[in-house]
Specification:
Number of strands: 9
Distance between the termini: 43 Å
Order of helices and strands: EEEHEEEEEE
Number of helices: 1
Strand content: 35-45%
Radius of gyration: 16 Å
Helix content: under 10%
Shape: flat
Length: 130
């Protein structure tokens, strides 16, 4: 069995270094002082301010730290770039039955086969009511 590892480039907060073989190895994002400061500020975030969330992918055993204003409840895969999938992390507004983009991550292509497909959805890219 494997162990969890940090995402190398899943979000803008991801941090990586090269090992002795030139492979990218993910590191704790809070090892970057700028990210550590964001995490400290997010502890007391008010409504409409960014918070820090952690996505644990139990299929690829990766951990990704990201920023969002509201907690995401769904992942919408919407494109590919550089061998990875573009994923919109979305919150849900029940009154309009709309998913709203909260953050954008890169996920490994292998997760695509594990996700359920939906015929259609209502997607908003920006909320007006922060």
């Amino acid at each position: 069995m494997g162990h969890l590892k940090w995402s190398t480039n899943g979000s803008p907060l991801s941090v990586h270094t090269a090992n002795e073989y030139g492979e990218c190895i993910g590191r704790d994002p809070t090892s970057n002082m700028e990210t550590a400061d964001k995490v400290k500020r997010a502890i007391n975030a008010k409504r409409g301010e960014p918070r820090i969330f952690t996505l644990v992918d139990t299929y690829t055993l990766t951990v990704t730290v990201f920023e969002a204003v509201r907690p995401p409840i769904a992942v919408v895969m919407c494109g590919a770039e550089g061998g990875m999938q573009r994923a919109l992390l979305c919150s849900y507004e029940w009154s309009s039955q709309t998913l709203y983009r909260e953050s954008v991550l890169r996920m490994e292509t292998v997760v695509l086969d594990q996700l359920a497909r939906v015929g259609r959805l209502r997607l908003g890219l920006r909320r007006e009511d922060l």
